[in-house]
Amino acid sequence: MSYLKPIQSFYQPSGLMCIVSWSWVLCIGLLSLIIQLEITHFNFWSAVTLVLFILLVITAIKRRTIYVDNNKLFLGRMFYHFDTVDLAQLKDVVFTKHQIKFTLNGERYQYYVGAAVLDQLRRQLNN
């Protein structure tokens, strides 16, 4: 097997987990908007909720990183540590245009990832 260059990208969960996580982030944004519209001038609480919303959006995008290196998959969580998955443990792997779906320890996972990560995972799983 030839050695493949380690690759890093961002991912987003797909399916119900995506809807739930982004709904909570949008709730904070709507709270900021409601506070601003209910009070006629910009106040401290409007600023706090707006800053919190912006930080959550940046965190939701930038902290969800995925690394593929040496037959291992590293998934960075939004507020937690990295989960490490050995590619040999993945079962029922399905690749779509922008998605990878697999079963690990009896649970089904679905992630939106970049094309470079999908290509690298295909090559490593086919070897």
Summarize the structure.
This protein is 43% helix and 31% strand.
Give your account of this protein's structure:
This protein has about 130 residues and is an alpha+beta fold. Helix content is about 45%, strand content about 30%. It has helices spanning about 15-40, 45-60, 115-125, and strands spanning about 5-15, 65-70, 70-75, 80-85, 90-95, 100-105, 105-115. A seven-stranded antiparallel β-sheet has the order 4-3-2-1-7-6-5. The chain is elongated, with a radius of gyration of 19 Å. About 10% of the residues are buried.
Computed Rg: 19 Å
Average of the residue pLDDT scores: 85
State the end-to-end distance. Answer: 7 Å
- Put simply, the count of helices is 3
Give a topology summary.
Elements: E1 7-13, H1 16-38, H2 44-62, E2 65-69, E3 72-76, E4 82-86, E5 91-95, E6 99-104, E7 107-113, H3 115-126
Antiparallel strand pairs: 1-2, 1-7, 2-3, 3-4, 5-6, 6-7
Question: Top keywords for this entry?
Answer:
single chain; 127 residues; alpha+beta; 7-stranded antiparallel sheet; 3 helices; 43% helix; elongated
